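Summary for the steering committee. One of the milestones for this cycle was to obtain a three-dimensional model of the protein with S-adenosylmethionine bound, which we needed before selecting residues for the alanine scan. The sequence and ligand used are listed below.
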Amino acid sequence: MSDSSSKTLSESILQQQIAYYSARANEYDEWFYRLNRYNRGEELNQRWFKEVEIVKQALLQIGQPEKILELACGTGIWTQELLKIGNRITAIDASAEVIAINRSKLNSPHIEYQQVDLFTWEPDAEYDLVFFSFWLSHIPPELLISFLTKVYQSVRFGGRLLMIDSRFEPTSTANNHILNDDGSIYKNRKLNDGQEFQIVKIFYQPDELQNHLSQVGFIADVKVTEHYFIYAHARKVNN
Ligand SMILES: C[S@@+](CC[C@H](N)C(=O)[O-])C[C@H]1O[C@@H](n2cnc3c(N)ncnc32)[C@H](O)[C@@H]1O
C-alpha cells in the first residue's frame, strides 16, 4: 500500500471512530457496567469490577489537583471520579452526542466541555493532571508520539499524567465482538442494532508504553491489573 493510500485509510478510520462513538453514545455505558452483550456472567463481571477498583484507587490516590484536563472524556464514567479530586476540569471529546450525555449526567459547574478532534487539537494551557482512559489504544501508531508530545506540553512541571487502557483480554469486549490476536490494529465493532464500524485498537505491553512515555519526557510508572487493564502514572519534572 502506498503512503497516500494508507493515509486515506487511517483518516477514514479516524472519522469512523468518531461516528462509532457518537452512534454508540446511548449504549456506551453497557460496556463498563457489564450489561447486555458485555455481561460475561457473575464470576467474570466480579473480576472486572475488582480490577476497576484497583485503577480507580490509583486515580483517587493522586491527591487534589486544582486543574485537570480529561481527553476523550466520553460519557462521564471517569469524569465523575475526577470530580471527586479536582476543582476545575476541562473535558474534551470529539463527539457532541457523548458530551451531551456526560454533561446531563454530571451537571457540574466545575466542568468545562470542549468538542475537539484530538488529532487536530493544539494544547493552549497547562494542567496539574492530564487524564485519559481507553483512548490511547485508538491512536494509530504513526500519530502516537505527536499526541503524547502534546500531552506532555499540557502538563505543568511538577504535574502528572494518569492514563488507563485495555489489556488484550477477549472477555473485556462484547460477546459478539471477535478479539483475536491477529496483529491487526483495525478491529470491527458492532452496535446493539447490528451496525458495524472499523476502529483502531492497540494493546500495549507495559515496557512499550513506558518507552513511549519516556520518549516524550515523562518519568513513568506503568502497571497492569491481572486481566483487564494497563495504567500509567507519569510525572513531568524539571531536569
Ligand atoms: C473508548 S471511549 C473512552 C471514553 C472515556 N474516556 C471512558 O473511559 O469511558 C473513546 C472516546 O474517544 C472519543 N473520540 C473518538 N475519536 C476522537 C477524536 N478524534 N478526538 C477526540 N475524541 C475522540 C469518543 O467519542 C469516545 O468518547
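Key point for the committee: The chain has a mean pLDDT of 93.
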